[in-house]
Batch of 2 targets.
Target 1
Amino acid sequence: MGKTTIEWCDFTFNPWRGCTPIGAGCANCYARRMARRQPAKFGVWARNERRIVSRLTLPWQWNRRAIRLGTRYKVFVGSMCDWAEDYRPVDAGGEVIRAWQNEVYDARSRLWAMIEACRNLDFLLLTKRVSRIAKVLPLSWVCRPRPNVWLGASVSTQSDADRAAEFLRQSSSSSGASGLRSNSRRRWFVPATGRWRG
Ligand code: SF4
């Protein structure tokens, strides 16, 4: 996490590490392959495993540096997670493990607050869970998109792409794909079969 070799961003940041695969589009998940080698560092790719929650110190440092240098940095959120994951781990008895779930919810809340405050960073929020974008983002962002938030969808099916296109069209701060007939320069999109790393 931090400085990255991904050419379309300056840094990567993960509010937590670990994810639950949701379909065929996850079969070639780069993060999952990395995590298999170092699960203690990168998390475990399973529904009922605890996520590794990150501290938020680095983005604040990048923001201060951006202010000092009079520039902006692009921060890819979620190279090792999906920020829109519906995380519902259950124990052996089928009960939701609230403590673990709350860790992720808290991390997401802190992420939103940090994004609001770090005005010299553009946050690239990519997700495969397109149908959850509007549910997970703060309501005020859906009503009034934040200029430093670029949304993107990684899609595996045409229906995913259609849902993504519809949502992204409705949001002026969304990051859309060239293939989504977007007319906004702020829109940006990474196809699942392209360079998507999540
Ligand atoms: S990080 Fe993305 S591609 Fe990987 S398992 Fe999670 S949703 Fe699927």
Note: DSSP finds seven helices and seven strands in the chain.
Target 2
Amino acid sequence: MSEQTKTSPGRRVVVAGAGMAGVQTAVALREQGWTGAIVLLGAEPHPPYDRPPLSKAVLLGKAEGAAFDVDFASLDIDLRLGVEATGLRPAERLLDTTAGPVAYDVLVVATGADPVTLPGTADVPGVYVLRTLDDAVRLRPVLAAGRDVVAVGAGWIGAEVATAAREAGCRVTVVEASGRPLAGALPAEVAAHMAGWYEQAGARLLTHAKVTSVAEGAVVLDDGSRLPADAVVVGVGARPATGWLAGSGVELAADGSVAADERLRTSVPDVWAVGDCASFPSARFGRRLLVHHWDNALQGPRTVAQNLVLGPEEGPVYDPVPYFWSEQFGRFVQYAGHHADADELLWRGDPEGASWSVCWLRSGVLRGLLAVGRPRDLAQGRRLIEQGTALDRTRAADPSVPLKAAVL
Ligand SMILES: Cc1cc2nc3c(=O)[nH]c(=O)nc-3n(C[C@H](O)[C@H](O)[C@H](O)COP(=O)(O)OP(=O)(O)OC[C@H]3O[C@@H](n4cnc5c(N)ncnc54)[C@H](O)[C@@H]3O)c2cc1C
């Protein structure tokens, strides 16, 4: 019998990281009938909370926090806050932490990701990232003061920060090194239509603009120009928070993520990994995926819990259709699937209008879908991607035809 098999009442699961993925792991284990002990360790002092509201309601002061509505005590989950995992000794089944070693039978790594910062800005006042509740609470009064905000990076976080800052009445400039917003995620012909959203919202978007230095109160660009900045919000991506695993034997991928297998097991027996810190091989998309989105931090833990309770013979393989949403400039933007540059792009609706979608097809089969203000397209498209369905191109390109009615 492999070591990574079924539950037994005396076995103890330790979860390192009490964000969405860690909390969901603990909750899903109880839902699946895990009767052994569950210890949930989180580095932050706050009761576990959800991150998407941080760049939306929390940043605007419309919500104080976003704590998960979970009664850990009644689920018999031993939640330990302010405890950071610092190392792993698999041979002894010990997790080293700032509160001393913690013994485990099964360990689930759920330490999420850390925001990438701009070199040389650590000690500059007025430079912010947005990853934690503390980050949002620090930034909130700056926005409320309605002054000059420079967002560095026109990705998902940059767009949401710009949206909130404009709503708060700030003067907003977004500085983007590439030629368009969301350059890593979407092709130029799609992203080009999103660039206009910044201007419509009264934010200035500077593309092909690199930050060379940040001083208190100003951002200097590579063309020598100086942007006044009461706050500089850096949104240039996040890296898996896996540095503490160095020397543990847990294999990491080149991007720093835990290289999990198709059931989210790591290279070390009885150690699993979920959420933003882990990548997994997707048979569906034919490549290893590192997904930094909320839905992945919900679905992965369910797969791990099922595998732990049922054992790997009966436990499911993890091969989701990735999904995320973003709320920016008054629009609800959703994406499902995974597309490649070579996939065929099909428009549904006028991208200059209020709502439209884009489909990506490979050999006629739907692989990815971006929906702006068309949640029904997203819901239907996500199912069609799951099913690997081929679409009739003419019908799929007609926004008046429900996507599910475009199936061949
Ligand atoms: C501001 C913001 C807005 C977002 N909005 C959206 C959105 O609109 N839509 C969407 O799909 N996704 C969104 N996301 C992404 C989504 O929130 C993440 O994918 C999700 O939070 C990942 O969950 P996680 O538990 O893997 O990681 P995290 O949420 O990062 O949680 C990891 C936890 O582990 C703790 N930790 C780290 N290291 C250690 C350690 N060594 N020991 C113990 N604890 C440790 C951290 O303090 C943290 O609390 C957003 C993210 C951010 C930051």
Note: Residues 117-234 form a domain with the FAD/NAD(P)-binding domain fold (CATH 3.50.50.60).
